[in-house]
Fold each of these.
Amino acid sequence: MLSSLKFHFRNFISSRTEEIGRRIVSSNSEYRELSAKSIALHKSIRSRLPAEARELLEEYESVINLMRALACDAMYEQGLKDGMRLRRLLRGQC
């Protein structure tokens, strides 16, 4: 039962962080500008590298993206736990 709850909790966190990410991308102009700049920089770097170095760059980016996804999920999960703890504390004071 607990592992099933954990599984569903993790799925909820993943889908929620993706939803928040999409919302930020669509509504935050600074984020969109930085994203466009990072894409342009990436293309410039990639075009100057030999083929074997491009493969290393892609592998590096995959690892970094996985690390960021794990960090986002962990932060969201901690935020949920903190929110539930805060709610309990506030209920106890009212």
Amino acid sequence: MEGPEREKDKVELSVLKRFGLRYSVLAAWEEQLRERGIAVPASVGKPLERSRVMISSGCFPVSEVSDDLGRIEAILISAATTAGQENAEEWLDTLGECMAENAKVEEIEGKIRLPAVKMHYNRFRFSC
């Protein structure tokens, strides 16, 4: 298959791979906040797990994964800034780095000590 549909699949695959890294950054940040005794709403756990499953399965649209990751990020930013976490800016920079097209995956994984979620692309989108 050629044309716009094929190009759309390539773009979606690229974004989902970056979301795997973004998920890992968010999970590492959430863990660090908890280790430092910062109150993170329990409501973060299920969306984190859900987004990991969506990314690794590859059968969910980018928009749905993006919505979940965005909500998680907002909660973590709120928890970190409310608690006065000094390195919140570093986490935000890392989140920005991981979404760049030329993201240095190994470098970011080393920073957060957590591998990116590996995904299996399912372009046929079985109803999951």
Amino acid sequence: MKIKIPPYPNFKITDEAFNRDVASVTVTKNDSLGLSNQLIMITQLGPGEKRVLKTRPVRFKGNLFVTAFPNPIHLFLSLAIENYNQSETIKEVNFAKCGRQVGKDIFVLDIEENGTHDCYNHYVKYRSSSIIMLVSSLEAFLNHIVPNDFKYTTTRKGKLIEFDKDGIESAKISFKEKLNEVIPQWLGQPDFWSKHDAVKVAIEELYENRKNIIHLKTNSEDDFTRYFPAIDKMLDLDILTAIDATIKFMNIVSPGFVEIQPD
């Protein structure tokens, strides 16, 4: 699976506005001297379709590399998918090559000079990275999709409280509250999650795994039990279901937000 990564922001510009505000004041410049590190770009993405984009160029060895800035939500989601695919390739292709068969269905990945096996290390690394980036994409989406003028109301200790956009994005509102309460209230659909329970369950399990990975709490009886509850859950998590649930949720809330590229 691969998704499209659109530019952000991405505004249409009419031919009238282009001719009036752009073409008439165009200045040709052939070097980067004096240019800001944040530029506005006007380009044509399709037949007769001009767009206004923002760029964040990269300077390297005296050169300026300019292109459209990617939407971070799609970028993080794409990275989560790529890392998941990498982990699956390692499991399906590399494990048998890396491992030494010691029984009918048992393979040992021998310990190398550094004390662990790169093949296994990469597998764990890509899976954990996939989970972290998937939740990062979801968190960014939850913040992005709620309008600046929206007010979220809820009850705390028996009192009615209102949160503006800054409050919603602050630590006062948890990920789960944004997901379970803010989104249905903004959509005006109190029963939103009753229609999409499987999606909610998958996302909440994903978030719990991400929290375990980030914190890796160390209160345990000994080193043989430290880390392993979190690692067990991370290795057993159905990441593909979590990816599918994430994309489905985004597209339910904002139809067409995520586009899957054909293979």
